[in-house]
Design brief:
alpha+beta; 12 strands; globular
Amino acid sequence: MNDSRPRQGAVPSDNPEGLASMVLIPRTLRIRRPRHTGIAVGVVALALTATACGSNDSSDTAGSEQTASPTAVSEEPAAPAEAAQTAFTSYASKRPFGDTVSALKKAVADNGMMILGDLNQAGALKSTGLNLKGAQSFFVGNPAKGKVFFDANPAIGTVIPLRMYVWAGDDGNSHVGYFDPAAMFTAVDPGLAEGGKQMAMAADKIAQGATGGSAQPGSKVAASFVSVASAKSFPDTEKALKKSVADNGMMILGDLNQAGALKSTGLHLKGARSYFVGNPTKGKMFFEANPAIGTVIPLRMYVWAGADGKAHIGYYDPAPLFQAVDAKLADGGEQMKMAASKIAEGAAK
């Protein structure tokens, strides 16, 4: 990347140049259209870059919104919804990393879905001196079905598009991992449970097609969806979130403009955007311990506008998710949990 200048949200460090170059690659996510799926999709612009994070363009979030489910958010700060039991599901691939990635892309299209963007974590972590054999997240969804879910409850943007992560283990074998979306849908809104089951079945088929293997579910943990009601408008909450991230020694490593993407389907949300938050130095330590942690970090923190026009911040409690990936990373998950809570509370005041 040519522009390595630090921007708002950079982590204070003795090596600012190294951290500033820790950005998500590529600069612009390309939309890949599945062939022969019958899905009609307009041009979707999903920005997951450091440059996009600094944008305050509000033109893509204007419009009307359908009424959200009353279970979507809590009016009390940092209120977790009833937890649903989820598991970190992984598949061991019979193919090397590069071939597994190619097979995943094909399996996504074969199952009527799209890869709406990707995050090359191995490439990003090179700037910290960590050389992984392969680590890449893919954001998978179906815009037409996604419209239905966002129309019912825009808080679902904390889950979709679904993050499916491919990584190479120390033994050279590759893997595909994700968290059960059925539980995640239910944690956001029990009324979307059936949609979550459909997404879980699609994810399983995609992972099987990519790896040639079967699911290896881990132990179940509570997936708690945490929501914070903001006292500010949607644009002001976004600005406050960026400041709160920096104030807590973290960085916004990228964003995903869901409201802008869904415009192509005819759905006009008042605001819906995911931010990917982390600290590259600590992230390096987690990836060194277990590269499967890329299924969780950088952490997704989602900002959306409710039917009442008020903004909200939502995320999944990272502590149990860390625990599900690797029990040895439990302390790191607790640290990330505290940081996420402080960031959300700071942005909502």
